[in-house]
Amino acid sequence: MRYISTRGSSPAVSFEQALLNGYAPDGGLYVPEHLPTVTQDDLRRWQPLSFPDLALEICSLFIPSGVISRQELRQLLGKSFAAFASPDKVVNLLHLPGKDDGRREQPHVFIAELFHGPTLAFKDIAMRFVVFLLDFFLSRREGGSSPSSPPRLHVVVATTGDTGPAAASAIEECRHLDCWCFFPYGSISKPQERQMTTLVGGNVHAVGVRDCPLGGDSLDEVVIELFEDRGFMQKVPLTSVNSINWGRVMVQIVHYFWCYLRLCDHIAGYSGLIEIGQEVVFSVPTGGVGNMCAGYIARCMRLPIHRIVCANNANHAVTRALNDGCFSRKAMVATHSSAIDIVVPYNFWRVLYLASGCSAQHIQQWTRQFYESDQGAQIDSDTLTRLREALIGCVVSDQDTLLTINECFVNNGYVLDPHTAVALSAYRSLQPSLPPSLPCVVLATAHPAKFPSVVQRALRIDDYSALPAKAHHPAIERIFLRLPRLRLCSFDDFRAYIRAEMEAVDGYRVRVRQSKDDKVQGGGF
Ligand SMILES: *Cc1c(COP(=O)(O)O)cnc(C)c1O
């Protein structure tokens, strides 16, 4: 299987190259040449598998065994999930009990806790694997076959809060990678900031940027400039593990299959809520659309998903596109669900590409319209019909986010993080327009302990220590006992500073490496 660009003007590449490149050279995103499909028999065969084994089956559909052997793939997946609270299950699916206040019984609503990794957000699931895979490819290259390729890569991450910590925590364990986390200073939560600034590995560099006009999107722009600067790239070899990286999307396909198969099991007093083949709904708090794109692909692969609810906050480019057929940018609005404050949801290009019947021509035209005209990209009616068969959008206000957190705690005794609250609230609003009694899986993308100030506000608790036990997590308490290491600058200076800083660090790495090589060869001083 090879990978092609959504913009159609770059050559097809191997899985390895797609992973190392991040973006395709024409600025498009890599997609598999064709999507595999699964049968109900496959699903039955996969039902007893552990999460890592299911991931092995699904990833094998996208990675030819010539690129990485099944055994190596198994090891890397095992290593990726070993740091989770439950390495066999990874994702915890639980039933949200119905309200008993006389209102209509909740249909079968389930919460899929995707946040049991080391940084307590769903990003850990795919990020660890992609990072370890990059390190694996680099080790292999170092081993011989292509000596001219860089022995070390700088991974650049612009983060709205959870990508940076997930990347940093995985990269800290890697030999061949440096991690640069850029974040809009003040716009992410303190626990998120600490998760990046208290790592001890000297290869993690957290950079807070003040006064970003578009929040995280401003940082994305600078990252893209770095990648387009060939002179700089030659000096400092870069890669990206942002959600545009194909590897991230690929691994996120797994949790849709996993949750579906768990609904077919006997859980929470239900004896197999559904039979294999019956449809379900997923509700996804959506920012950069990596997660929802994975769900869309799972549906294209024939996982029986009725619809995916695209749960947006006030930054709702995707919901607008689904409703009006027009994909456009608007100014960023800072919300309580800051990890999905995204103005340019990059992975939506992949979804559009697939829904347009893989038309690179359409993508080129829409990209021009998106960036150059105020109206944005006008999606044609065939594509729009296909999008609407799979996706349904909903916008959730900050007020409803707080209310949902509050209600869910009072009625269900469960503490939601703000993003999961957006997804639950969106599902509840759309439920009347969905066929009755379909089970819904709400993807819980972060632990509430990552967003204490929003949870405090929702539960009307002034004192942090008075938050319910479920809103705390020992991993978060621990990082507040540590000394942060943070590079800080203003957005105006950022472009210049970051180039100089990265060059300085890269130069240092090269010197250290050369002195080691000299020792190995018995030379040196
Ligand atoms: C990143 C993130 C999301 C959004 O995921 P996308 O793939 O970018 O749409 C939702 N919730 C949380 C907590 C996140 O960190």
Automatic annotation (TrEMBL):
Protein name, as recorded: Threonine synthase
A single MF term (Gene Ontology): lyase activity
Coiled-coil ranges from the UniProt annotation: none
Organism of derivation: Vitrella brassicaformis (strain CCMP3155)
Domain Threonine synthase N-terminal residues, every copy: 2-81
Cofactor: pyridoxal 5'-phosphate
NCBIfam families tied to this protein: thrC
InterPro entries the record matches: Thr_synth_N (IPR029144), Thr_synth_N_sf (IPR037158), Thr_synthase-like (IPR004450), Threonine_Synthase (IPR051166), TrpB-like_PALP (IPR001926), TrpB-like_PALP_sf (IPR036052)
Residues that bear N6-(pyridoxal phosphate)lysine: K123
Keyword Iron: no
Record key words, sorted: Lyase, Pyridoxal phosphate
A Pfam match: Thr_synth_N
UniProt family annotation: Belongs to the threonine synthase family.
BP terms from Gene Ontology: 2-oxobutyrate biosynthetic process; serine family amino acid catabolic process
Domain Tryptophan synthase beta chain-like PALP: 106-445
